[in-house]
Amino acid sequence: MDYKKLDKTSVIEHISKIKKIMAYFGADDLTAQEIGDGNLNYVYKISSVQNPQKALIAKQAVPYLRCVGEEFPLGRERMTYEIRALQKFYNILPSFIPNIYHTSEDMSLVVMEYLGSHVIMRKGLMEGVKYEKFSEHVSTYMSAMLFYTSSLHLSSSEKRAIIAQFNSNIELCKLTEDLVFSFAFMEHETNDNENVKNNPEAQKLFKDMKFKERVLELKYKFMTQSDALLHGDLHTGSIMINESQTYVIDPEFAFVGPFGFDVGALLANLVNNYIYHVVITKDEDFQEWLLVTIKEVLEKFSEKFLDFWAEDRESALLVEGYLDNETLLRYKENFVKNIIKESIGYAGVKMARRVYGVAGVAEIRGIEDKNLRAEAEKIALKIAREFVINYDKIDSVDEILEIVKNAG
Amino acid sequence: MDYKKLDKTSVIEHISKIKKIMAYFGADDLTAQEIGDGNLNYVYKISSVQNPQKALIAKQAVPYLRCVGEEFPLGRERMTYEIRALQKFYNILPSFIPNIYHTSEDMSLVVMEYLGSHVIMRKGLMEGVKYEKFSEHVSTYMSAMLFYTSSLHLSSSEKRAIIAQFNSNIELCKLTEDLVFSFAFMEHETNDNENVKNNPEAQKLFKDMKFKERVLELKYKFMTQSDALLHGDLHTGSIMINESQTYVIDPEFAFVGPFGFDVGALLANLVNNYIYHVVITKDEDFQEWLLVTIKEVLEKFSEKFLDFWAEDRESALLVEGYLDNETLLRYKENFVKNIIKESIGYAGVKMARRVYGVAGVAEIRGIEDKNLRAEAEKIALKIAREFVINYDKIDSVDEILEIVKNAG
Fold first, then answer.
1. Is residue B176 within 8 Å of residue B232, measured between CB atoms?
2. Which has more pLDDT, B127 or B359?
3. What is the reported pLDDT for B38?
4. How many CB atoms lie within 10 A of CB A375?
5. Contact assignment for A224 to B151 by CB distance below 8 Å
6. By the number of CB atoms within 10 A of the CB, which of A69, A224, A311, B389 ranks highest?
7. Superfamily of domain A119-407
8. Do A225 and B225 touch (CB under 8 A)?
9. Of A157, A167, A182, which has the smallest distance from its Cβ to B322's Cβ?
10. Which residues on chain A are in Cβ contact (under 8 Å) with B223?
11. Residue B291 near residue B274 (C-beta atoms within 8 A)
C-alpha cells in the first residue's frame, strides 16, 4: 500500500477495512479526534459513538517534524522502528506495552490500545502522585527488555537479526548524537539561546572541558556499543501510568546500543523531578519518595537482570562449563555493576542536556520564575557534572542518592 | 547467475566470458592449475600458455569446509564478505590489496592479481627473512583501514551502511567466538586432544579462572563493540610479502568489531614467531629484529592513526568546536593508547588459543620434537597470560617487549 497522510475522516475509512479493529469495536459508528501534544506525529483517538469507552489510538508519522512543519523534514521511517520495537517489546513483556491492533510500515501507522485511565508520568510526578508499583514495573520492563535482546541471552545470529532490523534508524540516532551529546554543550542555534545569552553558568558549562571530554567518551559508546535493543528515549514522558499499571510508549528512537542508556534516561528524569520538588513544591515527603523510588528501581533492575541471567545456561557469550560457578557469579555481578555505573554517566549527560539544549523538561525549563529556574538549573548541572565525571567510580546506589541530596 | 562449483576446466570457460580478464591476458590460451593449501576454498592459478608470467588467481568458495569435505557445511556466503572487504579495503588502500579483476557474490568467486614474487609471510619469517618495509606497510594498512571505517571518520549513516554490509557474516564471526574465545580454553572435541590429554599445562590453563574471566570480557567486546571494519583474521598467513611489497589477503572473517582485534592478531603472530626463533633456531639477531619490528608496528600504527585523525575536522563523533584543541589532542591520544591496550589483550587470547585449540600455528604446533614444542607452548602461555590479565595496565610498547623477552 502506498503511503497517504491520514486525517480525521480518512483515518476512519482506512481502519474500517481492518477486521481486527472492527471486531474490537463491534460497531461501525466510529469517530476520530486528534489528541496528544504531537511534536512529531499525528495521533487520533478513535472511539465508538454509542460506546465511547471503546476506544483505540491511531498514530501516524509524517515525513517532517510535525510541530515545526514541512520545512523540517524527518523521515516517516521512524514509525517503522517504533512498530518493530513495540512488537519486539510486546513479545517479551506484553504487560507493559499497549495492545497492538494494527501496524503498517508502508503507511507509517500503528493502531493500539487507548490508555484512558493513565496519565503521562511526568505530569503525575509533578503533581506529587506516588506510584507505588512503578519501581517494580519499570525494573521488570528494563531488565527483561535489555537482557532478552542482548548477547547475554541471544545466539549470535539472533542478535545480528535484531541489529539488522534497527541498524537503519539513522535519523533518530543522529538526532540523539547531535542534540543530546554535542550541541547542548556548545554555542549552537538549536539551544535555548534566550537563556544561554549572558548566562555565566552556560558559559562555564560550555568551557568545562573535563566534563565535555567525558561526555564524548559516553557519546562514542552510544554510537558503537551494541549491547541490547534500547527504547532510546525512556523519559517520564514516554511512560503512561496509574496506581496499578505502567505502560512504556513511543519507542521510535529504538536501536541496539549501550545497556546504560535507557536506565540512565529514566534516572535523569526522576532526579529532574526531585529537583522540581526541592525548588518549587518543597514537598519533602515526595522528595523522599522519589529517592526511595530511584533506589528501588536500580536495585530491582540489578536483581532481576541477574535472575534472568541465572535461568539461562548458554548464549552467544557463555558456553556451558567454560567458567566455574563462583567465577561466573562474580563475572555476572561485575557486569551488572558496570551497567549501573554506565547508567549514572548517561543520566548525567541527559540531565545536563535538558538545561540549555533543545527540548527542555517541564520540571526545569517549565519553571516560570527566572530565579527559581536558575536555581533548579544550577542543581541539575551540579548533579550532572558529578555523574558524568565520576560515574565509573560510584560504587553504590546510596552514593548516587548522596550526590542528589547534597546538591540541593 | 546461479551458483555452480567450478573446476580446472570450467573455471577457464567461465572467466573467458569476462572482458576485463581477457583484456588482461590479451590471448585465449589459458590454463588453470589448482594451488594453495586451500583449507576453506578452491584456488586456481590461471595463466597464459604462451606468456606464463601473465597470471591471475581465481578463488571460489564452496558451501562446506574444503579440507574436511561436504560433511562439514560452511556457507559459501563467506566469499560475499571477502569480496566486500577486498573492495572496501582496496578503495581505501589500493597498494596493500591485490588488484581485483572480477567478483561475483552469486558465484562466490573472486579473480585477482597473482602474487608470483611474494611468499606467505609466516613462511618467510620462519626462514629468518627480514622484511625491512613491513612495519611501515602494515602500520599504514591497519591504521588507515581502521580509522577510515570508524565513527571517528565516517558520518553516522556511512558507518551504519558498513555495519549493514557485514552484519550478516554470522557463521565466520561465530567460528571466532567459539574457537578463539571459548573452546580453546576448556575440554572440547575441536581441540588438539592428543596434546591436551594428560598434559598438566593444559589442565592448568583450563582451570585458570582469572585468565578465562578476562578472556570472556574480551569476547564480549568482540561481539558487541562496533568500532571499525576489521580484516578479522590478520595473522602472518594472511599476508603475502617480499622485500618491497606487502599484500593483505583473505578477509573472509571481515566484520565491524573492536579496533584492537586485528592489531592484536598481528602482534600475537609476531610474538609466536619470536618464540619459534628462541626455541628452535636460536637466532638472536632475528629475535632482535622481530622485537624492533613489533615496536615499530605499534608505534607507527599509533602515529599514523593520529595523523589521519588530525586531518579530519568533523565526523559522526566530533562536532567542530566542541572541545578546545588541547583537550581534543589529549582525548585522541588516550583513545589510541586504549586501542593498543586492547590489542595486547586480544594478542594474548590469540596466542593462547593457538596452543591447544583447533588450527595451531606452524611456529608452535609444527615443532616436531615433543620437548621443544612443550617449551614453546609454555613460553606462549606465559606471555599470553600476562597480556590477557594485564592488558589494560600495560602503558608502553617497551613493557610489551619486556614481557616477551622475560618469558623465554
1. yes
2. B127
3. 63
4. 17
5. yes
6. A224
7. Aminoglycoside phosphotransferase (APH), C-terminal lobe (3.90.1200.10)
8. yes
9. A182
10. 151, 156, 159, 316-317
11. yes
The answer to whether A156 contacts B164, with C-beta atoms less than 8 Å apart, is no
Looking at the DSSP bridge assignments, the partners of residue A41 are A61
What amino acid is encoded at A374 in this protein? Answer: A
pLDDT at B313: 81
- Domain residues of chain B, as ranges? 8-113, 119-407
Query: In this complex, is the C-beta atom of A214 within 8 Å of any C-beta atom belonging to chain B?
Result: no
CA A77 to chain centre: 19
* CA B265 from centroid of its chain's CA atoms: 6
Provide the pLDDT for residue B8. 93
Sheet holding B41-48, edge to edge: B30-35, B41-48, B55-61, B109-113, B100-104
Q: Which three cell numbers stand for residue B60?
A: 571460489
Which residues on chain B are in Cβ contact (under 8 Å) with A182?
A: 319, 322
Across all residues in chain B, what is the average pLDDT? 94
Q: Which residues of chain A have pLDDT under 70?
A: 37-38
The CATH code of the domain at B8-113 is 3.30.200.20
Confidence (pLDDT) at A202: 95
- From B309's Cα to the closest Cα of chain A, the distance in A is 15
Contact A216 B185 (CB under 8 A): no
Give the integer Cα–Cα distance in Å for B226 and B148.
Answer: 14
ipTM: 0.94
User: Is the distance from CB of A357 to CB of A183 less than 8 angstroms?
Assistant: yes
Global confidence as pTM? 0.95
pLDDT band at B37 (very low <50, low <70, confident <90, very high): low
Tell me which residue of B231, B206, B205, B69 sits closest to B149, measured CA to CA. Answer: B231
**Going by C-beta distance under 8 Å and a sequence separation of 6 or more, which residues neighbour residue B207?**
none
By CA distance, what is A210's nearest residue in B? B327
pLDDT reported for residue A71: 80
Contact at CB, A177 and B316, closer than 8 angstroms: yes
Closest by CA to B165, choosing from B230, B103, B99, B102, is B230
Put simply, the answer to whether B160 touches A167 (Cβ < 8 Å) is yes
Per DSSP, the three-state class of B77 is coil
Fold match between domain A8-113 and domain A119-407 = no
pLDDT tens profile B93-151: 999 999 999 999 999 999 999 999 999 999 999 999 999 999 999 999 999 999 999 99
Instruction: Read off the C-alpha cell for B98.
Output: 591485490
The CA dihedral of A2, A8, A10, A16, to the nearest 10 degrees, is 110
pLDDT of residue A37: 60
What's the pLDDT at B71?
81
* Secondary structure class of B186 (helix, strand, coil): coil
Angle between helices B284-311 and B134-148 (to 10 degrees): 30
